[in-house]
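Protocol step 4 of 6.
Sequence for Dipeptide/oligopeptide/nickel ABC transporter ATP-binding protein (Candidatus Marsarchaeota G1 archaeon BE_D) entered exactly as in the expression construct, tag removed. Do not edit the line below.
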Amino acid sequence: MVLVPILKAEGLSVDYFTQRGRLHAVSDVSFSLEEGESLGIVGESGSGKTTLATALLKLLPMNAEVVSGRVEIQGMDVLSMDEESLNKSLRWRVVSYVPQASQNALDPLYRIDDQFVETVHAHVDMPREEILHKAMELLLRVGVEPSKLRSYPWELSGGQKQRVMIALSLILKPKIVILDEPTTALDTIIQAQILELFRELKEYERLTAIFISHDISVISNVANRVGVMYAGRLVELGSSESVFYTPLHPYTQGLLKSVPDLRSDTPYSYIPGSPPDLVSPPSGCPFHPRCPLAMEICKKINPALEAYDGEHLVACHAVKR
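Step 5 output, structure tokens:
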């Protein structure tokens, strides 16, 4: 039986209009996600991860534009939908989004209960009592006392605010949740608790998820598929096992070597140089100025993302297929 993807992006490209010119934040990104899968998107800051996430829900800022491509979620052509249709048919009901720095996304002037009510009413008509009943159940599930509904965000700890945001994203039982850097700015113990909570919720709610992080060690704990982004492009895509145990792209290899391994005496290293300027990116492969395997062809031709072994894809001239 052929499985139909619940989410599919094809040739998605997004530009920002800046004072210096067009910034090519996402370039020709394609991937699909089947129901129940968890896809981790990893890459350095500025690699296009957040832009990709917001483009999937048509939540880009005013100075951004989808210049090409298509996004389909549960059979809906997202990019052709107007705001009313998106809010009533797609956002929060089919797919919800926990934004980067989501601890600061809660309005400090309103109690948590009012923010649950306002969020739900933006997408569906539902009595306040029913919303608060669902909110209490969700807060219990994520480990927050229901009495915190009457609190203001500034009365909660960072971990509690992150748990509230996760509960808020689940209030209308979406099939897909996109979490953007959900462990950033949390201490190590709280990070581990949030990751464990997410794993439990994913299993209990049968969620499909996209998990975005600059930390490849975080992605290894939550995703069964991994996409590696560099300079707005997917440079490697495959199962977690294949990407983590047999990384193909030199950038992926560099990310993995930059994570300290307490079980080994091998010192960790770092990727030299800086990500490219996406207003005027280098010719050819954008990673070639930092790549230890760069060849002459890398300076001239940007490699396509192609299959190496089954569903393990890589965009690199140095990889022999």
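Step 6, annotate. The two ends are 28 Å apart (CA to CA).
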